[in-house]
C-alpha cells in the first residue's frame, strides 16, 4: 500500500532540521580547528606564544565585530555575562597562550595525548555542574576516541623534545578548554552564538594585551606567510569556528560536543599529509580511524521499533535527543 504522506515529511521530518543544522555547524568547527594545528605550526616559528594568541584574537574580534554591526547584534544581556567572561578568560585567553607555549615544549604526540583529556573533563564537568546526562553510547564513544588519540600520540612521539613544563602547560590548556566550554553553555541560553563568541573573544584579547609589545616586535620580523597564517587563525578557526561551535553547543550537551572534537586528530593527520607532505604511518592511520569511529558511536541514535502501518517518526523525540548533533 502506497503512503499518502508528503514527500518532504518522508525525506526530512520537521524535528530533524535543527539537528542537521547543528551537525553541520559542528562539522565546520571540527574541520577548521583541525586546520588550525597546521597554521599554528607555521606561524609559531615566527611569533611567540603570547603574541600569536593576541594577534589571532584581535583578527577574530575584528571579523566578529564587523559581522555584529552588519547583523545589528547588540550587547549581550547581563544574565549571559558571567558565562561569557569566564569562557573568555579561560578558553579564548589562557587556553590559547598556554597551548601555544606548551606545543613549543613537547613533541606533537605528547601534546595530542595530554590535550585530548579535555573532552573527558568536559563530560564530567557537564554532568556535575550542568546536570548533563552521560548515556552509555557517549561514554563508549569517548573511550574509543581516546584510545585513538593515544594511538595517534604514541605514533607521533619522538618527533621533538618533551619537558615536564610542556606537559603541565598542555594539561592546563585541557583544563581551561573544559572549564570554558562548561561556562559557555549557560550563557547560550540568554545570548546568541554570535554574541557569546564575539564578546568572549574580546575578553580574551583584553587578557592578552600585555603581549602587545611582543606582537609588534614579532610582526616586524615575521615573514608574510606567518602573519597571514596568524590572520587566518583569527578569522576562520576563531571567528567562524567558535561561532559555529556555540551554535551547535546551544542545541546539545557539553559532553556530546566535547566528544565531537575527537575527530580533530584524525583530520590533522590527513591535512598534514596533504599540505605538508607528512606521510602518516599505519599506527597513526589506525589511531585516526579509532577517533572517527568513537565520534560515530557517541553520535549514534538508539533505534526505536516501528509501529506497523505508521509513516514517519514513531514518537516524539526524547528531550535529550532534541538537539543532538
Automatic annotation (TrEMBL):
<dbReference type="InterPro" id="IPR000620">
    <property type="entry name" value="EamA_dom"/>
</dbReference>
<feature type="domain" description="EamA">
    <location>
        <begin position="25"/>
        <end position="152"/>
    </location>
</feature>
<keyword id="KW-1133">Transmembrane helix</keyword>
<feature type="transmembrane region" description="Helical">
    <location>
        <begin position="163"/>
        <end position="182"/>
    </location>
</feature>
<feature type="transmembrane region" description="Helical">
    <location>
        <begin position="46"/>
        <end position="70"/>
    </location>
</feature>
<dbReference type="InterPro" id="IPR052756">
    <property type="entry name" value="Alkyne_AA_exporter"/>
</dbReference>
<dbReference type="InterPro" id="IPR037185">
    <property type="entry name" value="EmrE-like"/>
</dbReference>
<feature type="transmembrane region" description="Helical">
    <location>
        <begin position="282"/>
        <end position="298"/>
    </location>
</feature>
<feature type="transmembrane region" description="Helical">
    <location>
        <begin position="257"/>
        <end position="276"/>
    </location>
</feature>
<feature type="transmembrane region" description="Helical">
    <location>
        <begin position="20"/>
        <end position="40"/>
    </location>
</feature>
<feature type="region of interest" description="Disordered">
    <location>
        <begin position="306"/>
        <end position="325"/>
    </location>
</feature>
<comment type="similarity">
    <text>Belongs to the EamA transporter family.</text>
</comment>
<feature type="transmembrane region" description="Helical">
    <location>
        <begin position="138"/>
        <end position="157"/>
    </location>
</feature>
<feature type="compositionally biased region" description="Basic and acidic residues">
    <location>
        <begin position="316"/>
        <end position="325"/>
    </location>
</feature>
<feature type="transmembrane region" description="Helical">
    <location>
        <begin position="232"/>
        <end position="250"/>
    </location>
</feature>
<feature type="transmembrane region" description="Helical">
    <location>
        <begin position="194"/>
        <end position="212"/>
    </location>
</feature>
<feature type="transmembrane region" description="Helical">
    <location>
        <begin position="82"/>
        <end position="102"/>
    </location>
</feature>
<feature type="domain" description="EamA">
    <location>
        <begin position="165"/>
        <end position="297"/>
    </location>
</feature>
<keyword id="KW-0472">Membrane</keyword>
<feature type="transmembrane region" description="Helical">
    <location>
        <begin position="108"/>
        <end position="131"/>
    </location>
</feature>
<dbReference type="Pfam" id="PF00892">
    <property type="entry name" value="EamA"/>
</dbReference>
<keyword id="KW-0812">Transmembrane</keyword>
<protein>
    <submittedName>
        <fullName>DMT family transporter</fullName>
    </submittedName>
</protein>
